[in-house]
Write a structure and sequence with these properties.
It contains eight helices and ten strands. The chain has helices spanning about 1-25, 160-190, 200-215, 225-240, 250-260, 265-285, 290-310, 310-329; strands spanning about 25-30, 35-40, 40-50, 65, 70-85, 85-95, 100-105, 110-115, 120-125, 125-130. The longest helix has about 30 residues, at about 160-190. The chain is rod-shaped.
Length: about 325
């Protein structure tokens, strides 16, 4: 029993001696490159561990910040080097900055070593960093309020203006050339329209009379419409053939205007007079003609156009004269 107590006492003393020797052999330091910086400056924070080469230590790795308002930009960058007497030096470096002014204290950095008696920690000293604001105004004018300086406008140089002038000039030349080209192109492709002589008055009249006949208006009881259409055809014929504008004239005025053109009061004149007079009775006196009268008035109209139409020689002469005028143009 006494032997066991002595054995435990010896082991306890041995561990104490080993722990004390280990504590004296490990040294940790942490510091900034400078104790004072301005807001936004960047400096390095360095951790140095001096230990025996055979000893295993665990160092903490900082991620985003060393403490509140001190930001880590990059790191750690790890380096190690051997020194005399079987010792080794491990260096961790961080690039840091701060954007808030103030005085900051970094807690001691520690390293851990596992021993038979448990985990042993080795600490560095505290690190102090003062972050200062940049003084913008001079010290003797700090109390004076200054106006806000307007943005400085650099003068425009010829080198900046010249490219735009050249571009605008080039675009103007291209537009002018395009307009000239299209005008010339269109002018060269312009084809003179061939002269198409108007239809003779009698051709138009015969076509309209034939159309009226095929409609069979009076056979359907549309007497007034039949005579209105018949007289309109004749009046239009007079305008086209003799230049007698009778669409707005009465029957008497129409006949007088026709005589003034040199038209003789012959059988054709009487045919026209009978048709116009008979149509007035139907349209204004509500006269109801028998079918034979309707057919007679239609035949008289046809005969009048047939008798007074332009002859072939007159029509050919007019067309020839118009063609010669067009050729001279």
């Amino acid at each position: 029993m006494i032997v066991m107590k002595k054995l435990f006492l010896s082991l306890f003393l041995f561990n104490s001696i080993i722990s004390s020797s280990i504590g004296q052999e490990v040294k940790i330091t942490s510091s900034f490159d400078s104790t004072k910086i301005f807001v936004g400056d960047q400096i390095k924070f360095t951790i140095i561990v001096d230990k025996p080469s055979g000893m295993r230590l665990a160092l903490p790795v900082f991620k985003d910040t060393l403490c509140k308002n001190i930001d880590i930009i990059s790191g750690p960058h790890i380096d190690s080097s051997a020194i005399q007497n079987g010792r080794i030096k491990i260096i961790h470096k961080y690039l840091i900055t701060s954007f808030d002014s103030g005085r900051y204290q970094i807690n001691p950095v520690f390293a851990e070593a596992k021993t038979e008696g448990g985990v042993k920690r080795f600490y560095s000293d505290n690190s102090i960093l003062e972050v200062m604001r940049v003084k913008i105004a001079p010290a003797d004018t700090a109390s004076k309020i200054y106006d806000i300086i307007k943005p400085y406008k650099a003068p425009v140089t010829i080198g900046e203006v010249l490219p735009w002038v050249l571009i605008i000039t080039l675009v103007g030349i291209l537009i002018w050339g395009a307009i000239r080209f299209f005008r010339k192109f269109r002018k060269s492709e312009t084809v003179k329209e061939a002269y198409v002589p108007p239809e003779p008055a009698h051709v138009i009249a015969f076509r309209e009379l034939e159309k009226l006949k095929n409609e069979e208006l009076w056979q359907k009881g549309e007497i007034k419409r039949y005579y209105t259409t018949l007289t309109d055809i004749l009046r239009q014929y007079l305008e086209n053939r003799f230049r007698v504008f009778s669409l707005e004239l009465t029957t008497v005025e129409t006949l007088n205007a026709l005589v003034k053109t040199g038209f003789k009061k012959d059988g054709s004149y009487n045919d026209l007079k009978n048709v116009l007079t008979g149509a007035d009775l139907v349209k204004f006196a509500k006269y109801n003609p028998v079918p034979a009268e309707n057919e007679s008035h239609f035949q008289n109209s046809w005969n009048f156009v047939q008798a007074t139409k332009e002859n072939k020689m007159t029509t050919d002469s007019v067309e020839e004269n118009m063609s010669m005028k067009e050729g001279n143009v």
